[in-house]
Amino acid sequence: MPDTPPVSLDDVRDAAARIKGVAHRTPVLRSRTLDELVGAEVFVKCENLQRVGAFKFRGAYNAASRLSPERLAKGIAAYSSGNHAQAVALAARELGTTAVILMPEDTPRAKLEATAGYGAEIVTYDRYTGDRVAIGEALAADRGLELIPPYEHPHVIAGQGTAALELIEEAGELDALVVPVGGGGLIAGSATAAKGLLPDIRVIGVEPEAGDDTKRSLEAGRRVSVPVPRTIADGQAADIPGELTFSINRRLLDGIALVDDDEIREAMRFAFERLKTVVEPSGASALAALLAHRVEPLPRRVGLILSGGNIGAERFAELLGG
């Protein structure tokens, strides 16, 4: 690995300045009930209340806004299971250009409709048989578009890290930070920010049991592929960590916790009933890890990120048995 990290705390701070006034500075919630259940002081960063309903807007806007006027005018492409799709679509609209988004055929309807609602053209593929990176790169090349990947991009990673930067600015010193892991962009940026500010902080990722590619990769010391995960946490259905994100995460992460779909459902229910906020399955995984005591021993002051809230009422009720 290179001595100079691909993303630094200064990059995250620069991204924070760039997205200021465009992205929301999302709230940090506290809950005495949550503290009592897990045995720690917990600070909950609500990225489900971010624009487009997820942290993804931070990275998408940071990356897109750095394009030259000439490149921006040609349009932007992206591939995504939903939240990055919406983020790129909105970033394109904010910057006065167009977006073409490659999305899985089985993407939840709420995410498809929201992406189209921001003005993007949607192209679909089968996530279980198609290679989204290859298809996305070919689509961008054929149309002359600038491709902004969901996590394999230093400006995207730096943008995502601004969520942890804000959390620590508001909560103060934390002993641990618990973050959902899909392709690894959010936790790579978060760990960069957190370790840059608080060198002794523990950074713990959370994956669904069916998609433990990052955990296996960290244990093996190299990127390991798993079958495309079949989990309710569609935003975490990655089969292999990103090359760039893994180069950061293998250096900065202190561990990975796993949660099952039932534990994710219970976390969604807790967030709704006790925190009075709606989170999608992927967005609830870090909370699930705390509620299910998957992070042990838990230190005194813990931050966690609710990474997204893009779920329709019907799907929410279906998952919770309503």
Rg, Cα atoms, Å: 18 Å
- Strand order within the widest beta sheet: 1-2-10-7-8-9
Mean pLDDT: 94
Distance linking N and C termini:
49 Å
What is the H/E string? HEHEHHEHEHEHEHEHEHHEHHEH
Percent of residues in helical segments? 40-55%
Number of strands: 10
Shape: globular
What would you note in describing this structure?
By secondary structure, this protein is of the alpha/beta class. Helices cover 45% and strands 15% of the residues. The chain has 14 helices and ten strands. It has helices at 9-19, 32-38, 56-64, 69-74, 83-94, 109-117, 132-143, 154-171, 185-197, 213-220, 243-252, 261-273, 281-291, 313-319, and strands spanning 28-29, 41-46, 76-79, 99-104, 121-125, 146-147, 176-180, 202-208, 255-259, 301-306. Strands 1-2-10-7-8-9 form a six-stranded mixed β-sheet, sandwiched between helices. Strand 4, helix 6 and strand 5 (121-125) form a beta-alpha-beta unit. Helix 8 packs across helix 9 (185-197). The radius of gyration is 18 Å and the shape is globular. The model has no long low-confidence stretch (mean pLDDT 94).
